[in-house]
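Entry under discussion copied across for reference:
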Amino acid sequence: MRFNSHNLDKSGFEANAFENNQIEYIIYEKELHGMNYFTALSEIFAVRFTINLAARFMRLKARGFGTFVWAYARGFAFTYIAIDMESIIAGS
């Protein structure tokens, strides 16, 4: 309640300023402009990608071995992570 988190209504320099990302700074302690917010999004991306990849391996089409199965699962994970990250960045 005492610190500001990333405000999605702001853009550009104002969106990535320290005053708008205090919680992210406390967690990640990066001093570069906007790097704390980027680091938070990177961690969210990694977790969501892992979940989507595991979900694809649970489907019957992905049961098997070989490089095509991995390509199929990664393609699915990247498709859905793009949708997920777009909605997260938009704030919905």
Notes: Residues 5 and 55 are 31 Å apart (CA to CA). The mean pLDDT is 78. Residues 67-90 form the longest helix (24 residues). The chain has one domain: 14-90.
